[in-house]
Amino acid sequence: MSQAILWRQIKNQKVQCMACSHFCLIAPHEKGKCGVRINVAGDLISLVRDKVAAMNLDPIEKKPLYHYLPGSHTLSMGTMGCNLSCTFCQNHSLSQPPKNNEPVQGNAVSSEQIIALSREYNAKSISYTYSEPTIFIELVRDIAIPSKAAGLKNLIVSNGFQSKQCLQEMSEYIDAANIDLKAYTERFYRDYCDASLKPVLDNLVRIKEMGWWLEVTTLLIPGLNNSEQEIKDMAGFIHDNLGSDTPWHISGFHPTYKMTDRQPTKVEDLEKAFETGKSKGLKFVYTGNSPGHRGGNTICSCGETIVKRSGFRIQEIKITDKACPSCGQIIPGVWD
Fold first, then answer.
1. pLDDT tens digits, residue range 101-130?
2. Is the whole-model pTM more than 0.85?
3. Which helix (H) or strand (E) holds 144?
């Protein structure tokens, strides 16, 4: 345990957490919605600053980031806890237990250890992922600042529900992000995530303005966020507010956690969403959880396949000097 950042004192030893857009008011001995930030005698304490609960060496395509150092590996880490309560969470065994007052598990790591591991395994970056980096912002800062100074890139995979203050805190040491756009209705965020849509939309725009490399992911859930109109709305928002070059990953849903009453997403629905995204002017739309599907490749507007993928594995990269070898068009991303 150690003192948290991004909070303020309120009267009678209450505190307000400023890390995410819940802005939890926390009485003494109580926790915020994330389950890992607790008020101890008027101080906000992080329960996960020294509790890394998951760490793996991943292909960067798994984040997913398709236009950022493709073919490289990233050292991924996360803690327990999350500020959202998604009923379809694929990492619920990591993200949800602290909300139920279950023990917060994990092991302390130092920035020196992380940098050494990254070099040992030739990782080009460190990813803060698996749960939600916002709720372990102190650990992110502890690792990211020295890692960036050592020449490593720092990435977040996030639900995008940070506070403006949290993004400002991260602005100097995070280089790229994949942000979930889970749906395009307030009702979905309220009923299935215990959150709201507007802060996510605002943060997507802020991240783009901050200059991080940004990619967006939507998990397509049958009957909940896959109507033709909602897909058009999401694609239109990305195009109009984040730019036509922003990659959009549309992933297939598999029943899990509290949402086992729905069938997996059909490949035909992924293809339909893919075509809708392209029709709205997005240049780089991808389908996830569908190995071998053409939606995993990066294709230039001239029709040339410039990055060919099989699942998370790169089969071929044809980019030359950041451009398509056939037509010379610059392909947005970080390729070197």
1. 999 999 999 999 999 999 999 999 999 999
2. yes
3. helix 137-149
